[in-house]
């Protein structure tokens, strides 16, 4: 076993649904590195997924919480404080778009659904941090991480209003990261991950093509869910204690490539 770089640390992992989830794999790896974890997901997701199995594996519990509800988040944090005291890390792995699910074109969005997309996928990140900040829930040099995607910077038409949500998510990380760092020495970062065949990811129309394109364009190939989990663990650890307000690309180099020879049909 490699060095347990999270020995003695505690945190909250949101969004684990099944074995394909990045959040699931992150929870497992964090546990392997010595962390104690509290799991949470929306009540509807708890009925659909297998997170209770993960809780048993990690010898912990699952707290149902709607991340858009300050009341639910307050109860989640009450449970975390009762279990651990102050926390070392939080992973925000939450995203959903009714417009994308129902294949509404970006030029004809249902705006009520769009507001829901932004609330669930981005504003919930602000809510989680704001409440943690006010309660002084995080230890000094704690780490908050959220999962993003390159559609925050580039056009991926089938990703719809999730692109706007991810752009907002990254902006929130930079802006709140300033206050969290200045006032409480807490780090805030996002990870822009390759297309990854999770339950949520594969629900995007055209996902298989996105996956194949990313694989061809990336000199190292697409980053896997396990790769992202490793980066999350590193960001939770003391090895990255002065990295904050950054968007880190875990994408095999995709974000720096204009066009690969394979795409151009040359070598």
Helical fraction equals 40-55%
**Derived structural class:** alpha/beta
Q: Give the number of helices.
A: 10
How would you state the average pLDDT, rounded? Answer: 93
| Gap from first CA to last CA | 41 Å
CATH topology: Rossmann fold
CATH class (first level) name: Alpha Beta
**Percent of residues in beta strands:** 15-25%
Shape: globular
Over the alpha carbons, how many angstroms does the gyration radius reach? 18 Å
Main sheet: strand order? 3-2-1-4-5-6-7
Largest sheet, strands/sense/barrel: 7 strands, parallel
Q: How many structural domains can be distinguished in the coordinates?
A: 1
Strands, total number: 7
Summary of the model, kept short:
With 267 residues, this protein is of the alpha/beta class. It has helices at 22-32, 43-48, 51-58, 70-84, 98-101, 111-135, 162-184, 207-217, 225-236, 261-264; strands spanning 10-14, 36-41, 62-64, 87-92, 138-148, 187-193, 246-250.
